[in-house]
Write a structure and sequence with these properties.
It contains 29 helices and seven strands. With about 650 residues, it is mainly α. It is elongated.
Length: about 650
């Protein structure tokens, strides 16, 4: 049967695998490893998925009801961008550091490749040896036993015509390769018969040379008539003597010839025996031994708990595959005490074991019922500790697992912030990639929603700094991950918005945040993001000192103008509120007039679409023209409208 394997890592390539229904999934994966080896990706981690379910190595295609011409997905365990890096598989024979890890699956792949290269080389040498014997067969015509030529030529002809063809890249080729083993058996028998015949004829030749006087009995009988017919003629006798010498030389050549034939027959027979043994090997035999795992959960658990490093890595890989396959498997893992084992393996010194343990934990935590038990066993400490590992995939799985916990249960959120959890999340924010930044922003937003965890966020400075760091880094990256960066920006702004409701001065001390919020509309043309940024800017208008800091930013007026270009009524209303607030301190009016702030307010007034915004801008113009004399009036903190509020909601003054 034929299987077609597709992967998003190779959008223009489909791998085709010829297999049997009785083949295991591990055998299919092994065949794929050989295909990946040819394009330089033999050491990359992947799973096979069929109809939404991950396939376990120990099961056969028939058991999964995979039919001929089925399409299977190859799911890489790393980002597509990471498939150009050297990664290890889920097998190892040693522990210690990353540089000392030996991947036995990779070693098995190299062993198979060497085995196949040897097959190709020996088969090529076999054909070369057969072609060399064509000349040797014709030399049999110059021996005493010239009729040996016909048998020898027949064997050579059969050897060459019916010989199978093989290359490591192309595999078996031609119809002769179908019965390759039968061919080698026949060739071994023919070589044995030819060898026995050659030895027998060699014995006859040597015995004739050694047991009879010169020029051998056969030659004497052949030249006796010649000498009798010569009748003493010196010329005729010379001819007879030369004929006698040639006969003797033919006997010597016959002995030498069959010695050479014996050597060639032995060489050919040895090659045939080796090829017959080599033909028993099929692609994937060695790799399947290391990939395949038992189906019994208890045995997998025992290997994960008491096995050596190789067995633990293999077992935790199997657990991760099982957890990704179905929810029933997740509950079965928990029932067999798998959570404690996975937590222990997540702290292993072997980084790949850590990676698969973190993946298995993340898969199990997709079920809310398992999250409570995981938190009760102290698993959150392990997840936050994994944020310090150097393996980016382990960090990603740990962050994903934490996001599942904080998203599904308010009661479990406190377990995240306990025991330096916020500091661990803040550390991960410094080095997170685009995808991890988005998940981390989600985690901080979920923590900010819940009152108890929000209080923990407000009592520390590092969480706010981490959120600001996520916000700034998302806008400083390239456009390759624009969607993730936009989501991170929105989530981080919403988290900050929730925090400043209770503590408006929380963000005014953050360096570079003010400048970032002002230039954000010039970088991102998204009304929702601009509205969130403008609402945060209101926090710099609660005191004359904050207003002065806001006005002192370079190109302050031009940056505010970008907000107005959106033509969003709510956004323009917020900008009008900011304009009114910063015109209230008398000490700033002169500076604002010098920067033509009146022109900006006039433009803002013309862009207003409702009476409230127009009144705000009119009052701001009055302040700049010094019509009402007023010092700075401290306003009660204005609660910014959340991102989910309706566009028609007005800001209170």
């Amino acid at each position: 049967m034929l299987l077609y394997i597709q992967s998003k890592a190779y959008p223009g390539r489909t791998f085709v695998d010829l297999c049997r229904p009785s083949d295991t999934v591990a055998r299919v994966r092994a065949n794929l490893l050989h295909s990946l080896h040819e394009i330089g990706h033999s050491n990359h981690q992947f799973r096979l998925q069929y109809k939404g379910s991950y396939l376990r190595d120990a099961y056969t295609l028939e058991e999964y009801k995979i039919l001929n011409n089925a399409v299977i997905s190859m799911v890489p365990l790393n980002d597509v961008s990471e498939w150009n890096k050297d990664l290890r598989f889920h097998q190892s024979t040693t522990t210690t550091t990353d540089d000392q890890v030996v991947d036995v699956v990779q070693s098995a792949l190299c062993e198979e490749i060497g085995y196949l290269d040897t097959r190709e080389k020996v088969l090529r040498n076999y054909k070369t040896l057969v072609m060399m014997q064509i000349v040797l067969a014709f030399l049999a015509l110059f021996t005493v036993y010239w009729y040996f030529f016909f048998a020898y030529l027949l064997v050579i002809f059969a050897s060459f015509i019916y010989s199978p063809s093989f290359t490591r890249i192309g595999g078996w080729m031609g119809k002769n390769s179908v019965r390759r083993r039968e061919f080698m058996v026949v060739m071994i028998l023919l070589c044995t018969l030819m060898l026995a015949s050659s030895i027998l004829l060699l014995v006859f030749s040597v015995s004739e040379l050694t047991l009879s006087p010169y020029p051998t009995t056969r030659c004497q009988s052949q030249v006796s008539n010649c000498f009798s017919e010569a009748r003493g003629d010196p010329v005729e006798e010379g001819v007879c003597t030369a004929y006698q010498m040639r006969c003797y030389e033919s006997s010597v050549w016959t002995s030498v010839y069959f010695c050479i034939v014996i050597i060639f027959m032995i060489s050919t027979g040895v090659l045939c025996c080796y090829l017959l043994y080599n033909f028993k090997f099929e692609v994937g035999d060695f790799i399947e031994h290391y990939l395949i795992q038992t189906r019994e959960m208890q045995q997998v658990m025992h290997a994960a708990k008491h096995g050596d490093t190789s067995q633990k890595r293999s077992a935790v890989f199997e657990l991760a595959t099982m957890a990704a396959s179905a929810d029933d498997n997740k509950f079965q893992i928990v029932t067999e005490g798998g959570l404690d084992i996975l937590i222990s393996l997540a702290l292993s010194k072997d980084s790949t074991t850590q990676e698969y343990a973190a993946e298995a934990i993340a898969e199990c935590l997709t079920v809310p019922a398992i999250q409570d038990q995981f938190v009760a066993t102290g698993g959150m400490k392990t997840l936050t500790a994994l944020l310090y590992t150097k393996n980016p995939r382990t960090v990603r799985e740990a962050i994903t697992a934490i996001s599942y916990v904080v998203s599904d249960s308010d009661d479990n959120k406190m377990a995240v912030v306990a025991d330096h959890g916020l500091e661990d999340l803040s550390y991960a924010s410094k080095y997170a990639d685009h995808r991890n930044r988005r998940v981390l922003s989600t985690i901080f937003l979920e923590l900010a929603y819940y009152s108890e965890t929000r209080a923990s966020l407000l009592t520390r400075s590092t969480p706010t700094e981490a959120i600001v760091n996520l916000l700034i880094r998302s806008s400083s990256t390239n456009e390759d991950h624009m969607e993730d960066n936009l989501q991170t920006t929105i989530l981080a702004l919403q988290a900050l918005e929730l925090l400043v409701i209770e503590t408006p001065t929380l963000i005014t001390t953050q360096e570079n945040l003010l400048e970032y919020l002002l230039v954000l509309p010039s970088r991102i043309n998204e009304n929702k993001i601009q509205l969130l940024a403008s609402q945060l800017l209101l926090n710099w208008t609660h005191s004359p000192e904050d207003c002065e800091k806001l006005c002192s930013v370079e190109d302050f007026t031009d940056n505010l103008l970008y907000f107005v270009h959106s033509n969003d009524a709510n956004l323009i209303r917020v900008i009008a509120t900011i304009a009114l607030r910063i015109t209230e301190p008398i000490s700033l009016r002169s500076k604002l007039n010098d920067e033509d702030f009146q022109d900006f307010i006039s433009y803002l007034q013309n862009a207003s679409s409702d009476r409230q915004t127009w009144n705000l801008t009119a009052q701001a113009l009055d302040n700049l023209q010094n019509k009402p004399d007023s010092g700075f009036i401290q306003k009660n903190p204005v609660r910014p409208a959340s991102s989910s509020s309706s566009e028609g909601e007005a800001f209170t003054q």
